[in-house]
Design goal:
The protein has 8 helices and 7 strands, in the order αββββααβααααβαβ. The protein has 230 residues and is of the alpha/beta class.
Length: 230
Amino acid sequence: MTRLVASLCGTALLAFVMSANATTPPVPVLNWNPCSPDGAVCAAARVPLDYDNPAGAQTFIVLARYPVDPATKIGTVFVNFGGPGVSGVTRLIQSGFGLTLRALLQGRFDVVAFDPRGVGYSDPMQCFDTEGDRTAFRASHPIFPYFDDQERPYFDAYSSLGPMCLGRRQPIALHMSTGDVARDLDLLRQAVGDDRITYLGFSYGSYLGDTYANMFPDKVRALVIDGVLN
């Protein structure tokens, strides 16, 4: 997968043409390549790092897709599994969700998930020196503080992540808001050729879906959100 992503990013960079005087970012060109034995294909999309400066530096977004027959296709369903921070590419393929959803939709929609900017295969932000350090940090606390005496240590530990990550001065760290991800999603919608988005979001994905709908209300075809944030 790592070699494939590197190849995809190089291809995407060549396909990404931007005018020096552009005021809006161009639509990325997606070059799909096989990335799983079960028929999934993956691509990388170049998008602006800072949407206030769309002609400046870029970052990349990696997507996975289960395509359907163009003869029966009416659009694309974008899926976000939540987090924030869950790798949509990994979850779509390894969980079998992509194939299951494609079958449930009876061949009418391509199913696409992506790793949001700074996450997973998408130019990830690094907060630890090694994967072992990251694993050790996560193993030292429960996923959720189920008991009263776990709450304060849990809060203190995870509150330290912000300064830890920002202290590494990675460019992506200042451009990972939900608004940035919603803007990426709108470029991805255009890249797959859909006039309006069809979206399925879980947990944090419900917040991303709401944010997208508020930012691009005339670009929503259908929006399904599950496990809605309060």
